[in-house]
């Protein structure tokens, strides 16, 4: 299968591309810069120059592929609404290009808060509408299941961890180095699900090959790790204390990530594992923290 991948040089994409190539697929990766293009080529994939704002490049990549994996996202948390609009436009372009073809459109999404204390499952649906998180892209794209597309939502855990991770947990470690404490918010009992990047890449491939149209796939290995435990592991690795930070002080202490670190985001992948035959085998989040990947 010829697969068009956005975000091919990113943290998750850099694991997905070799997974696809090893399985015999051909990969074309979207690249915005010379550095990104070089990274894609080093992995053995072809390059299509363009960006999320260049809708013509997205349409071209989708039109010439047997399937699309959309992993790129504008992580500008100073203008999260703008990032949502960009995402909505990108997904509209990709989905409309594939309309009537029966080809797969896999796209990155996140787990969401359904109700306090409730574990989200694949059957739960997130909010739609342009003002919803990520521009309501999940509801928009899944709606194309009735229009001749095979859309599959890839709901990634808040932390996709491993050596080289610079995402949410990497940001928390950076805050701890800067402030001298690895704090948690409130009593720290709210939870984040987690998955190792290699397990995530394997599941993305399985979803490309067999994910059902209109389905949500939970890229989750650990249902929920308490944020206090995460903070204490970061503190132990860095040799700094792990105090509680009052909720009203979270944004001042943590910056933009405080709003996410305060959320309770447990998620189950039981249905995903059963339907796609996926069993996570990678290290846990705490094992990766103990290995020192976030203290270098």
Description:
This protein has 296 residues and is of the alpha/beta class. It folds into two domains: 2-158 and 195-220, NAD(P)-binding Rossmann-like Domain (Rossmann fold), CATH 3.40.50.720; 159-193 and 223-290, UDP-galactose 4-epimerase, domain 1, CATH 3.90.25. It has helices at 13-22, 34-42, 55-63, 80-98, 137-142, 168-179, 197-210, 227-238, 250-254, 258-261, 270-276, 285-290, and strands spanning 2-6, 26-31, 46-49, 67-70, 104-110, 150-156, 159-161, 184-185, 191-196, 215-219, 222-226, 244-245. The strands form three sheets. A seven-stranded parallel sheet has the order 3-2-1-4-5-6-10, sandwiched between helices. Strand 4 (67-70), helix 4 and strand 5 (104-110) form a beta-alpha-beta unit. Helix 3 (55-63) packs parallel to helix 4. 47% of the residues are buried. The mean pLDDT is 93.
Comma- or semicolon-separated keywords:
296 residues, UDP-galactose 4-epimerase, domain 1, 2 domains, seven-stranded parallel beta sheet
């Amino acid at each position: 299968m010829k697969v068009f991948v956005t975000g091919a040089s990113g943290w998750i994409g850099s694991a997905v591309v070799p997974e696809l190539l090893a399985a015999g697929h051909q990969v074309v990766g979207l690249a915005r810069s010379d550095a990104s293009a070089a990274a894609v080529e080093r992995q053995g994939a072809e390059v299509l120059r363009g960006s999320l704002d260049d809708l013509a490049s997205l349409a071209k990549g989708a039109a010439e592929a047997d399937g699309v994996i959309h992993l790129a996202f504008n992580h500008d948390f100073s203008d999260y609404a703008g990032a949502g609009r960009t995402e909505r436009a990108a997904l509209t372009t990709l989905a409309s290009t594939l309309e009537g073809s029966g080809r797969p459109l896999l796209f990155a999404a996140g787990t969401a808060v359904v109700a306090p204390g409730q574990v989200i499952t694949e059957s739960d649906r997130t909010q739609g509408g342009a003002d919803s998180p990520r521009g309501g892209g999940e509801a928009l794209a899944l709606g194309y299941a009735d229009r001749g597309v095979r859309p599959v939502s890839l709901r990634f855990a808040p932390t996709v961890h491993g050596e080289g991770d610079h995402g949410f947990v990497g940001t928390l470690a950076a805050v701890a180095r800067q402030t001298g404490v690895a704090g948690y918010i409130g009593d720290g009992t709210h939870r984040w699900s987690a998955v190792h990047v290699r397990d995530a890449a394997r599941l993305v491939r399985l979803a490309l090959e067999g994910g059902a149209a209109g389905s949500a796939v939970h890229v989750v290995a650990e249902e929920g790790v308490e944020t206090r435990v995460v903070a204490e592991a970061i503190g132990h690795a860095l040799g700094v204390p792990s105090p509680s930070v009052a909720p009203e002080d979270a944004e001042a202490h943590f910056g933009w990530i405080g709003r996410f670190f305060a959320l309770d985001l447990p998620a189950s992948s039981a249905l995903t594992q059963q339907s796609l035959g996926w069993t996570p085998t990678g290290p846990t989040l705490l094992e990766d923290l103990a290995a020192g990947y976030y203290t270098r």
